[in-house]
């Protein structure tokens, strides 16, 4: 997306993932829940690929990334922990893929400087 995070895709992915997690928590697992995990996973993979491409581009403006990764430093580990606690063979592949994407995003967030660090 050339220096911009697809916040719409991110928002949809988070909402879909949170809805799927809520259904799991309420013991309402169904084919629909599995599809929510699958779609969320595909969206996060797309988002991750876009972010990697942006960060490797010399012309990228990092303004949006500061807040995204600052927030991610708090959120990504929580999602990793929550996803690791799910024990359901029917969605094992989707869960493992989501964990992998969140771990990769978390690595970038940990390495990404804060806006304050860039100014100094």
Primary descriptors:
120 residues, mainly alpha, 5 helices
Summarize it.
The chain has helices at residues 7-25, 31-55, 63-84, 92-111, 115-119.
Tell me the strand percentage band.
Answer: under 5%
Mean pLDDT: 88
Query: Major β-sheet, in short?
Result: none
Tell me the number of helical segments per DSSP (H or I, 4 or more residues long): 5
| C-alpha end-to-end distance | 28 Å
Determine Rg (CA atoms, Å): 15 Å
What does this molecule look like?
- This protein is mainly alpha-helical and 120 residues long.
- The protein has five helices and no strands.
- The protein has helices at residues 7-25, 31-55, 63-84, 92-111, 115-119.
- α1 (7-25) runs antiparallel to α2.
- The longest helix has 25 residues, at 31-55.
- It starts with 6 loop residues before the first helix and ends with a helix.
Topology, please?
Layout: H1 7-25, H2 31-55, H3 63-84, H4 92-111, H5 115-119
């Amino acid at each position: 997306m050339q220096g911009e995070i697809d916040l719409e895709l991110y928002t949809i992915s988070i909402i879909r993932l949170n809805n799927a997690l809520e259904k799991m928590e309420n013991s309402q697992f169904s084919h629909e829940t599995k599809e929510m995990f699958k779609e969320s996973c595909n969206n996060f993979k797309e988002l991750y690929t876009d972010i990697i491409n942006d960060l490797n581009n010399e012309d990228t403006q990092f303004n949006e990334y500061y807040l995204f990764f600052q927030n991610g430093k708090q959120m990504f580990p929580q999602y990793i922990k929550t996803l690791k606690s799910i024990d359901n063979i029917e969605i094992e592949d989707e869960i493992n893929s989501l964990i992998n994407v969140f771990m990769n995003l978390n690595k970038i967030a940990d390495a990404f400087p804060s806006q304050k660090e860039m100014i100094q």
